[in-house]
Amino acid sequence: MYSETLNLYASLRRFEHRLVLAESCTAGLVAAELGGIPGISNYLCGSLVAYRNDSKIRWAGIEPAVLEDPSVGPVSDVVTLALAESALQCTPEATLAGAITGHLGPGSPEHLDGIVYCAIAVRSDQTATICKEYRLSAPSPKDSQDITARCLRQAQAAKLMITTLIEFLG
Questions:
Q1: What CATH number does the domain containing 158 carry?
Q2: Structural domain tally of the chain?
Q3: Is the pTM here over 0.85, yes or no?
């Protein structure tokens, strides 16, 4: 993942973007990857880790009804876009926000297991946003003791967020 992280750093520098992140399923892994690069403080404003619904409500202003709605829920394009927009609004120096949510397992609903959403919001004359849905290829953890599978899925999700940002910046 290090080469992708360096590519994102180069893109942020080239386009003079300042990035803020809102991370759920990756629990700050994207920011941690970027944080290992000397000079990243010129381009990384910070990362909000909103793992639980209550944090999404209190820190990012997500409506409880949206999180509780079975047709939407906390892992959805709607919530992921709202996290990106909220992070951008709360960070005036940021010009770009990335947000990620996902069902990494174990215990995810079978039809949602491995689904990840990556959203990007850009500050410009009009805030532009995109959201992409992905399905992880790494196998689901067998149980709560299967830390290796869980970490593989988290790393894959973090790489998707980084890659999505790079592709967006072009």
A1: 3.90.950.20
A2: 1
A3: yes
Residue 146 lies in domain = 2-169
- What is the residue-level pLDDT of the chain in tens, covering all 170 positions? 679 999 999 999 999 999 999 999 999 999 999 999 999 999 999 999 999 999 999 999 999 999 999 999 999 999 999 999 999 999 999 999 999 999 999 988 888 999 999 999 999 866 678 999 999 999 999 999 999 999 999 999 999 999 999 999 98
| Three-state secondary structure string covering the chain | CHHHHHHHHHHHHHHCCCEEEEECCCCCHHHHHHHCCCCHHHCEEEEEECCCHHHHHHHHCCCHHHHHCCCCCCCCHHHHHHHHHHHHHHCCCCCEEEEEEECCCCCCCHHHCCEEEEEEEECCCCCEEEEEEEECCCCCCCCCCCHHHHHHHHHHHHHHHHHHHHHHHC
